[in-house]
Amino acid sequence: MIESFGADYAAPLLSALATPAQVSVRANALKGYAPPAGADLVPWWPQGFYLDERPLFAADPAWHQGLYYVQEASSMIYTEAVRRVAALVASGEPLRYLDACAAPGGKTISALAALSPDDFVVANELDRHRANILYENIARYGATNVGLSRGDALRYSKLKEAFDIIAVDAPCSGEGMMRKEPEAVAQWSPSLIASCAAVQREILAGLWRALKPGGVLIYSTCTFNRSENEENIDRLIAETGATSLDLGLDTFTGVRRGIGTDSFCYRLSPGHVRGEGIFIAAVRKPGECRRADGKDRKTAPCSAFAKAHVAASDELTEVMCADRLEVRPRAHARFIASLEPAVSLMRGGLPVAITKGRDMVPVHDLALSAALIPGSFPLLELDYAAALDFLRGESMSDIPSDLPRGFFTPAYAGVPLGFAKNIGRRANNLMPDALRLRLDPRGLSQPEPLVVPQINHQTL
Question: What are the b/e assignments for 169-186, b being 16+ CB within 10 Å?
């Protein structure tokens, strides 16, 4: 199959598939972090950089704090693609973006990095386990303008013309990940390709109804064959009258145009770029862009708790979800509420606390949020060994006598790791069970920082 694409494409790709995959990470600029000076940068996203070898990320507190995200380099081109698409659909009002098949969360993070903080992103995942991973990664990233849902992406077809941009990183045969995942090789078959292509067409047809006139659908896979890639784009254009958009991604060295099509499609392939296999294309729905329904200011102000701990709280409103207090962007509050009858929201904004009687207990999402007001909870700096103990969920003793009773943020290198509660001579560790570190800390040495504060580095 690959040989049929021509020797100039096939030969470098087939050769590269026999070599080890590259390791890359992206610094979290939302939290003020950047690659170190001299880093080997990813060409299409200068907050991403390559590593010479794969470290034990779970042993690095900075990974748990969300200061960087481990992402395959080719996937980072999503940030540039979304940035260019957002410029095409901009109307002066906040945009609404759906990532329909979002786990594990890298492309959602890429979109959040490209969009304005005033825009709103909804990330959906069908599989329960993968949805939980998505939740964890988005919580570590720390944005407030993102909601998460779990279930069939086709439920969003009920929301007619609701989104300005819809991203479909479709379930696929995974040929582009064969170098990294031997299971992809074992599962591959021509029948798998045919099955995936049929599912992809169904998803595209359903989600097309949720896209506004003049809106843009971004389609991507991590596979090489034309059936799941160019042929699906050409079929969608023929059936809907969509316009293929020239995103100009082939100006980056090694990014190839689509094969056997006049549509604007882009391929990133091992042997041509330093990354794995990604196909990406964008099409525009016929019609004129409708402006969003304006900023929704008819919402209740935040409570004293949120005002004390969440930055820009005047732009947020509060919602109680059972016993959980959540803050949501006021500009999108009505829109988020309209989602709930159709989809199962895991979060509609930023969870900040749960109620226990009259008490408000801060939740882990708040500790990791970029919106947490520095110093709004007392901070207790930990050394590396103590930070690992906290991440493992160990109880905390030897609490400084001058640390106030109540909730505080254990921190490493000045950045919160989570919450604990000082009850006197010891503190209760509030690290969620599902996120607790399972590593044996014995023998682990303090890692060198992978990312640095932007204040000490040239920013983008």
Answer: bbbbbbbbbbbbeeebee
